[in-house]
Design brief:
GO terms for molecular function: GTP binding; GTPase activity; mitochondrial ribosome binding. By secondary structure, the chain is α+β, with helices and mostly antiparallel strands. It has 16 helices and 33 strands. The protein binds guanosine-5'-diphosphate (GDP) and magnesium ion (MG).
Length: 616
Amino acid sequence: FPPEKIRNFGIIAHVDHGKSTLADRLLEFTGTIKESLENKQVLDKLQVERERGITVKAQSASIVYKCDGKEYLLNLIDTPGHVDFSYEVSRSLSACQGVILVDATQGVQAQTLANYLLSMEHGLPVIPVINKIDMPRANIAKVEKEMLNLLDVHTSEIIHISAKLGQNIDQVLEAIVKQLPSPNLDCKSSYNSSSLLKALLFDSTYEKFRGVIANVAILDGTMKKGDIISSVYLQQKDGNSKSAYEVKEVGILRPEHVSTDVLYAGQVGYIVCGMKTVADAQIGDTLYHHKHPVQGLPKFKKARPVVFGEMFPLDQSQFKNLDAALNRLMLNDRSVTKLNSKSFLLGSGFRIGFLGLLHMDVFCQRLEQEFGTNVVMTSPTVPYKAILNPNKRLQIKEEKEITITTPEDYPSQNLVKDFLQPMIIGTVITPLQYSQDIMELCTAKNGTAVGNSYISETSLMLQYRLPLDEIVVDFYDKLKSLSSGYASFDYEDDGYESVNLSKVDILLNGEIVQELSKICTLEKSRKIGAKTCAKLKDLIPRQPFPVSIQAVIGKSVIARQTLPAAKKDVLAKTGGGDYTRKLKLLRREADLQKHLRAIGKIKVPKNLFIKMIFKL
Ligand code: GDP
Ligand code: MG
């Protein structure tokens, strides 16, 4: 296929709008895969994806399509739509030249808009599509109006389809061929159509026997089996050394690997070249023929984690295995960050950074399903910052900024000039009737309105500036329940702002319990302190003597409870509480119950801590 016969495109849309279904139809319609009666969503390969019905990892497939008697090669890159995964989206986008925006009858959603803006940023043309026209609830006129208001499109361009019934799929394919530019046009302008190989490495995975598999977009030249290649990253890493790899296999993704022995400019495919560590297959790297170095492509924006949790193996003997599993999984998800961490109770573990809560959930589920690991994950925190004053004794010469993600990071108060918290701009799109409740929710979460506007007679777009901390735990759930699931949400970072940050410590009969310390805003500290004390009173088994439970900030007590001494016949109080959601913990519950930890003279079962972590 010459470049002018190639189109690289992605389907972007809000979760559940039918991306994967449309992808399946496109593959079926063109005979790439066999038709099936049930919707099997071929590209949603991972088990988590099937269970949750969301796409986590961008997948690619090549389609051959005949239009006006000529054959075209269409490379489809399936993208995840959720806000937590936009890193994957932007990574995929840089390898495609066109994007289809599918919109369901629910109307334009916050993520649709965010992804649309992302495409605009990449300078990608968009084919607007309305999906699910077969549904009785479909309100096509309203959805069209929203699209005209929010996106830069014309009514005549909008294609109406039913991915489920396979209606008007041909129109979509035709639009891809006719409206999207071929990759070559792009190359010519920016890469001077020389014949030297220049390939973008946009994704990589690891397989046990074949080793590193890199997904590449060929921007210039050709890549053949047997070629000796190197990369800009490898050259920089190893200096001017011989760092080079032989291409052992090249092919296209249909969506399974089909070896073709050669890839031409404009094509998207995979290569296997015997790289042993995935660290060598840097995403965003530029590949070239070893003898003909080229200039590197602009670097990808690195994903920045916004939610942190501490992860521990339920069983310390599994620490090495967990480490290995994490490393393997992180090869396929480069947005996750990992640092070593230690806990008095849970032993050695890791501090893991995620792009969002859903991302964290999905990652843990994959750890369990794909690697059979059992982990304990503590509640998420966001990265706060502290500006420290210069201090001679501590040899801090000038003002210094530190990041605080766990209670141990919290600096001593007298050093601190200011604490800062991360802020976001949240966009909510909602039917009118829920807007009042949602505005109240945003205000309760310390949000300030930035701008509200109608996007049709019946739907509103609300924008609020909110502390990230307020949205990481339950904002999304609350929003969904307030709006019966109709409101959608997306956010972007908006810098840092001064905050009154405090560290709440818990004392049992005057002894500090390190693992229960918590960082929170001063405003919330009383509530959190009171909750923790009440909960502890409920969970700690009665001792032969009374136990005082206190929450303190520095030296001042902000909440207290007293657990009365045990009567003779009372053995232990069982901590009621339903936490069936953390089923995996139950399995180890009996074990942990046996392990007692002494805090002073007080004996408490170890699993109390796990319960405390999850139940607040
Ligand atoms: P994704 O999250 O964007 O990948 O969405 P999916 O492709 O997983 O589709 C979400 C749900 O919508 C599935 O239950 C599909 O069967 C359903 N769906 C997708 N397209 C259509 C359509 O055209 N009509 C109807 N009635 N349902 C559809
Ligand atoms: Mg999907």
